Every structure is written in C-alpha cells, then in structure tokens.
Amino acid sequence: xxxxxxxxxxxxxxxxxxxxxxxxxxxxxxxxxxxxxxxxxxxxxxxxxxxxxxxxxxxxxxxxxxxxxxxxxxxxxxxxxxxxxxxxxxxxxxxxxxxxxxxxxxxxxxxxxxxxxxxxxxxxxxxxxxxxxxxxxxxxxxxxxxxxxxxxxxxxxxxxxxxxxxxxxxxxxxxxxx
Length: 178
Hints:
Elements: E1 11-14, H1 21-28, H2 34-37, H3 45-54, H4 59-62, E2 65-71, E3 77-87, E4 92-99, H5 108-122, E5 128-134, H6 138-146, E6 150-161, E7 164-174
C-alpha cells in the first residue's frame, strides 16, 4: 500500500492500538463534545478496550473506520478520524474528526482530513463523503470547505444541545471523475 495515503509531513494515520485506550477514554468521555457525537453516557474502559480488540480495522467488515491521528515529530496521539455510516452499496460514508484540545489550531485536522480523503477516494474508490456540522461551528465548516467539501443542505433544529435545538449544515465531497 502506498504509504503516502497515511502519512503527511506532520501527521500520520494509523489503526487503533491497545495503548490508545487512555487517550480514547479521555476523548470519548469529554461531555463537551457529546452534542456532535450522539453520546449520552460515558464509556467505560472495558467497553473501549473491547471496541479496540474487536475492530477489524476494515471498513468493509466493520462498516466504519477509526484511525488515530499521530503527530510525526513525537508520535503523540493528537486525535481521531472516523468514517461512520459506511454504505458499500452506495460507496459513501460520513466523516468525523476530533483533535485533542491542546493540539487544536495547528492545521493537523486539515492534514489528517486530506489524507483520509486521498485514501477513500484514491484507494477505496468511494464516491462521496458527507459531514454534519452545527451551523455555529465556523471552524469545522471552514476546515471541511478548505478540503473541498461543499454545503448541500441545512437541517433545521437537527441537534438538541442543552435543551435548545441547533441547525446543522450538511457538507459533501464527491470523488471527481477521472
């Protein structure tokens, strides 16, 4: 496999490893992100350990893919990038990305997202990726638009957050015909 699918100058994507348990535990249980993840209760270490152990790291087998985002300079795990809602029949999936707070604002998310897009379009030949983003999350919208995603819909009052409903923008990236 072409290593460039998973490595840029500053970040690389890799499969989950058992040593990622504590980072995942911390990230998944950060209730400040639950509004975009649909989580309602904390995950236990046991459940996350089982998830890591049982994942085949094969999007076609698992119908999802989670990769760890690692900073090249020091091998620090700085976040995760996912494809969920994978539909092989329609060659599409939904992207999710989370960067740990202390690493945000450094361009790592864009590099990881570009790597993921290159992989799913250039190697797996998916047709499209989508993402749902709260309309007030301008940083995430800018991130995805900078990687070629375009707005294709607005979902009114789609997410309930803190007793209020938020509008969500739907962005899409189609594989270009070659």
